[in-house]
Design a protein that fits this description.
Elements (H helix, E strand, L loop, with lengths): L5 H17 L7 E6 L5 H15 L9 E3 L2 H9 L4 H4 L9 H9 L6 H18 L2 E4 L3 H4 L6 E7 L2 H12 L3 H23 L11 E4 L5 H31 L1
Parallel strand pairs: 1-3, 1-4, 2-3, 4-5
């Protein structure tokens, strides 16, 4: 079953709401993945979710869910936006005059309003935990949230072009153009809305070169980091509890 399927989302939200209703639980971790185009983010995210479902099932189990392209659908649903509006939610900085004109015509809210709506949804999902948020400024939005692990995936340009062409069934010539456009668009997006450099490694906990590791190895690095984070949080809380009661 695909991680982005309706059944997985429904099960995820049902298990989360049930847990919150029964009793307070330890904060579940979340992951954000920023990526260069063609660096394998969706493949790696799916592998991480699958590994963590097996290795960290929880009690009761709560499946890990990947939000990538479907994150736009979640934002639209949260804010009662039409599918037409969702098509304007791109990872790029919109041209101001075009954005203002389209907003005036009622085609969509202003880009800043849509960004505020996206921020609300991303934070909501991150607080639920057991989610992997790919792109859409999720790393910047949750930068100060302690239980979120921030990952950046990079790879040599020629390898990214080859992977992007294969994954999207494109010629390498076409893939090369799209990869450049996506990289530049995402760079503008983070700079305009968050004032940060997407390529600055200080914005992330992990920067993984998938040209030097396989996608499966990258997923294992991320999964191990989350497991270590969960173990550290658990130990820290047990120590603090002992201090209070000792």
């Amino acid at each position: 079953m695909k991680r982005g399927s309706v059944d997985v989302f429904t099960g995820f939200l049902r298990s989360q709401s049930g847990l919150m209703a029964e009793h307070p639980v330890r904060q579940k971790p979340a992951i954000t993945i920023s990526r260069q185009a063609g660096a394998g983010a969706i493949t790696v995210a799916e592998l991480v979710a699958k590994q963590l479902d097996i290795e960290c099932p929880g009690d009761p189990p709560c499946p890990w869910v990947v939000f990538d392209r479907n994150l736009v659908e979640e934002i639209a649903k949260d804010h009662n936006l039409s599918k037409t509006v969702a098509t304007y939610m791109v990872e790029d900085a919109r041209f101001p005059l075009a954005d203002a004109f389209e907003a005036l015509l009622g085609l969509h809210p202003s880009s800043w309003t849509m960004m505020e709506q996206a921020t609300t949804t991303v934070r909501k999902l991150a607080m639920k935990g057991n989610v992997i948020l790919v792109g859409r400024g999720s790393s910047a939005i949750t930068a100060r949230v302690p239980h979120v692990l921030h990952v950046r995936l990079v790879a040599p340009y020629h390898e990214r072009v080859r992977h992007f062409a294969k994954y999207n069934h494109l010629s390498e010539e076409r893939a090369a153009l799209v990869v450049r456009e996506k990289d530049e668009g995402r760079r503008r997006f983070l700079r305009q809305y968050f004032g940060i450099d997407i390529d600055d490694p200080l914005n992330y906990d992990l920067v993984i070169n998938t040209g030097r590791t396989s996608f499966r190895q990258a997923a294992r690095i991320i999964s191990n980091s989350i497991r270590d984070q969960m173990a550290t949080d658990h130990t820290t809380k047990d120590y603090a509890r002992a201090l209070r009661t000792g």
